[in-house]
């Protein structure tokens, strides 16, 4: 009865608020779509053109035998003679066998979507101890999904691991149409990501998308583990890059990055390195808000069926995975409600986190 009595301007106000709420919550998604379709760009820079030409002509076939010798475990056959639609490379640490098993039993247990093959592999560096190395060899024989590079798996060597992933892809899996690079702390919804990739009909080249980090600055604190000195990187800002938690590239981008990486010996974090290589090859990162970046998205079944990733997944992943993959679809309304609720709750978490940090800093200030 009350609704009937509302005046026009009151209705306008309500509708305006509903629209504002949705624009704030979902505006990013719409822009992202727009940018993905505004490609491709024409390149005039000679350096970029040369790199792209080199990438097009790249032939790894003669190098295959030699290449497989430079890995401790090369798994060089897992991708040969098959059409892979989506290759998923999960960067993992040698010790973290429990985590890999959890992924194998949950989100990583996908071999195809609608007849398109999906392949999930783990990328490791060399283990620090002989005992762990033996475990890894055993694990590799059992599951056949491990790539182990010939470098020590340390914090500083993570960029090497990313470069290795690119090298492995262009050498041993050159038929993979898309490559998702992620790491072991993530939850990835492969079906929803693959469905999205299948829906892209045009511009299947130069794809580099994920959660874009804009105007990030190098860590100039000499005490920090991720310290980047001026000699390592001179400029004030990094170019835009996709968060290393999870991003997708197309095969041609893997080739371009591989070509540039050989000529760009910079010591920066792995995701920044990919961003620098992409920029030098004339590739623009594309933002997708369905990637979480470093955020943990609060669990909600219908929300998790829609998003691509969430960070900091705990071990209860198994229970949640069963619920997500039980085959029950979400209606449009349920998805809508799920998205609104998990987005609002995630903002709330971020806000709480932010406030806790501020309180802690204030307290430190006070005690000092
Ligand atoms: C492979 O390595 C050997 C020795 O390191 C070298 O002689 C040979 O030319 C290499 N083959 C290719 C195709 O590069
Ligand atoms: C993967 O899923 C299939 C059923 O889809 C199941 O039979 C199999 O045991 C699962 N694998 C693992 C390692 O849990
Ligand atoms: C990176 O790997 C190389 C090759 O194994 C090794 O010599 C080097 O010490 C590693 N760097 C760090 C910082 O662990
Ligand atoms: C294994 O991975 C999980 C998730 O990223 C992490 O929380 C844990 O600390 C890791 N454990 C080791 C031994 O690296």
From TrEMBL:
EC numbers for this chain: 2.4.1.-
GO CC, one annotated term: Golgi membrane
Localisation: Golgi apparatus membrane
MF (Gene Ontology): hexosyltransferase activity
GO annotation (BP), single: protein O-linked glycosylation
Family: Belongs to the glycosyltransferase 31 family.
Name recorded for this polypeptide: Hexosyltransferase
Organism: Terrapene triunguis
């Amino acid at each position: 009865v009350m609704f009937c009595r509302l005046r026009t301007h009151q209705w306008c106000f309500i509708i305006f608020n509903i629209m504002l709420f949705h624009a704030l919550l979902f505006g990013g998604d719409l822009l992202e779509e727009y940018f993905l379709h505004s490609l491709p760009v024409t390149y005039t820079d000679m350096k970029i053109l040369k790199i792209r030409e080199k990438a097009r002509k790249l032939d790894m076939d003669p190098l295959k035998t030699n290449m497989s010798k430079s890995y401790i475990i090369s798994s060089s056959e897992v991708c040969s003679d098959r059409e892979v639609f989506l290759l998923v490379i999960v960067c993992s640490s040698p010790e973290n066998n429990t985590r890999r098993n959890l992924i194998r039993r949950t989100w990583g247990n996908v071999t195809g979507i609608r007849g398109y093959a999906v392949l999930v592999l783990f990328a490791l560096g060399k283990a620090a101890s002989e005992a762990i190395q033996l475990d890894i060899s055993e694990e590799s024989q059992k599951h056949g999904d491990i790539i182990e590079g010939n470098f020590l798996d340390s914090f500083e060597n993570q960029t090497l691991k990313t470069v290795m992933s690119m090298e492995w892809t262009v050498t041993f899996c050159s038929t993979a149409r898309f490559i998702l690079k992620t790491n072991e702390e993530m939850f990835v919804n492969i079906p929803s990501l693959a469905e999205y990739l299948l829906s892209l009909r045009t511009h299947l080249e130069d794809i580099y998308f994920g959660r874009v980090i804009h105007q990030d600055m190098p860590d100039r604190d000499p005490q920090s583990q991720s310290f980047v000195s001026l000699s390592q990187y001179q400029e004030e800002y990094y170019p835009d890059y996709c968060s290393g938690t999870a991003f997708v590239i197309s095969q041609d981008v893997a080739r371009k990055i591989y070509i540039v990486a050989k000529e760009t010996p910079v010591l920066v974090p792995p995701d920044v390195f990919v961003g620098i290589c992409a920029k030098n090859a004339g590739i623009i990162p594309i933002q997708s808000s369905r990637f979480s970046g470093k955020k943990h998205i609060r669990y909600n079944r219908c929300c998790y069926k829609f998003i691509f990733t969430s960070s900091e997944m705990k071990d209860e992943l198994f229970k949640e995975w069963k619920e997500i993959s039980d085959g029950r679809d979400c209606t449009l309304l349920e998805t809508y409600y799920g998205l609104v609720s998990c987005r609002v709750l995630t903002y709330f978490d971020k806000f709480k986190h932010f406030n806790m940090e501020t309180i802690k800093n204030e307290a430190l200030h006070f005690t000092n």
